[in-house]
Design brief:
Transmembrane segments: 42-63
InterPro entries: MFS_trans_sf (IPR036259)
Distance between the termini: 46 Å
Structural class: mainly alpha
Order of helices and strands: HHEE
Keywords: Membrane, Transmembrane, Transmembrane helix
Number of domains: 1
Length: 84
């Protein structure tokens, strides 16, 4: 199940990323020369995807981490870190 969801998410994400890149490249061509995107389009597309990557990194930092558990004598408890 998880493998299928992962595959679908990667496929949809790749398709969306490709379409966004094409849209940015097309919008950056002022003369609308067929088949030849402007160099500024590649720079803009890279900037857009860099911002998306930074947003994803920020979102991943916002996810709370797991609490560490330790086992002592067959009994599990929470790890207590002294706050001196």
């Amino acid at each position: 199940m998880a493998g299928g969801v992962n595959t679908i998410a990667r496929t949809v994400g790749g398709a969306m990323g490709a379409q966004i890149a094409v849209a940015v490249l097309d919008a950056a061509d002022p003369a609308k020369a067929p088949g030849f995107p402007a160099e500024s389009g590649y720079t803009s597309a890279f900037a857009v995807f860099a911002l998306v990557a930074c947003g994803a990194l920020g979102a991943s930092w916002a996810i709370p981490g797991k609490r560490h558990r330790v086992s002592s004598g067959g009994h599990q408890g929470r790890l207590r870190i002294p706050t001196d």
